[in-house]
Amino acid sequence: MLRLLSALLLVALASGSALPFYNPSSRVVNGEEAEAHSWPPQVLLQYQVSGGWSFTCGGSLIDPDWVLTAGHCISSSRKYRVVLGEHDRTVTEGPEQVISVAATFVHPQWNSSCLSCGNDIALLKLSHSAELTPEVQPICPPPRGYILPHGTKCYVIGWGRLSTGGQTANKLQQALLPVVDYAHCSQKDWWGSSVKETMVCAGGGDSSACNGDSGGPLICSGVNCKWEVYGVVSFGSSLGCNTLKKPTVFTRVSAFIDWIIGIIGGYPRCLC
Fold it and tell me: What fold characterizes domain 40-138+257-264?
């Protein structure tokens, strides 16, 4: 078990999650700055600290009242808010909407002491509905159970570290990652038994998610919509964010459609 734990590194920014593999110094690695407001579902998650708010994770708006993020981003002892329509998190640009989180719902089978057990997913109920604008739009999940084909190119997005041990990004970053199917990702020289069929692997080369990108989306061309959110950033390798054969591991959203519907009380009100 200790060997397994040492092989995993939560992609959460340390200040945002009191978990054992917090690296105090981690962005999307080898990506590029996204065009401002080109990803309107992207959410910046903050928690309250003395004197203000601290950036912790990313997320996806999937309904005017609901945000999808990772279970390891959430602590029951903290107060959260989201920033929608954000690009440069160091300045106010105009389209931002800041909304407090009224309630958090972490998957009941998420276990912070078993990082590779899966179920790293959470929903945030907003205190009031987001105003839908060109910069703020909800994204739909994929069909229930849908599996991305090996090699599918998808975008990971976030404000996480620009390199292993580097600084977090001020401006939203994006990187195009190839999906690695379960048959490849579960091979012994890849992630082995640490990856489950309820996860999605993407990357494993030059580009990856990194600390601070946790909870953010893996966005791909959709089955029913132009874009759909297929993954939630979960973990990467302690050897480095963009380690060869250690792709970023995402919670597979299509495996949790029934849970999402059960918490929300219906299918998300998202736009295609």
Answer: Thrombin, subunit H (2.40.10)
